[in-house]
């Protein structure tokens, strides 16, 4: 992509299509660990918010090393982001993002001492898409077997402002 505005626009177009992310962190030994988290909110500048348990390994990892990777997949669309995360203890923001679905994991509510926020600031990423979603992808794969031509799709890398 040519400029930051169009890169942010594309990211803001893509992010609402995903409900869940695999957030990859680095443990003390250097091992990578992926954590399935629900995206609670996306901001227009590339920041994403997650509600997590204060004792989750992701929290421990981020406090030590803020660099994270995020991956998303939905109906013929894939997105990978690299960013920096931080643990944010903000009760007002937690209450703003709270929903009944979060209560399944944290039944004591947003004021529970066992719940906090993880904010990820996206720095760069790449996306892949196939026009028409899952069915079109399946048709394109079959057609590629018959014709020997690679399926066509959309792919772009981008960097975001700090």
UniProtKB/TrEMBL annotation:
Residues 7-151 form the General stress protein FMN-binding split barrel domain. Pfam families: Pyrid_ox_like. InterPro entries: Split_barrel_FMN-bd (IPR012349), Stress-Dev_Protein (IPR052917), YdaG_split_barrel_FMN-bd (IPR038725). Gene3D superfamilies: Electron Transport, Fmn-binding Protein, Chain A. It comes from the Bacteria. PANTHER family: PROTEIN BLI-3 (PTHR34818:SF1). This is Pyridoxamine 5'-phosphate oxidase. The lineage of its organism: Bacteria, Bacillati, Actinomycetota, Actinomycetes, Micrococcales.
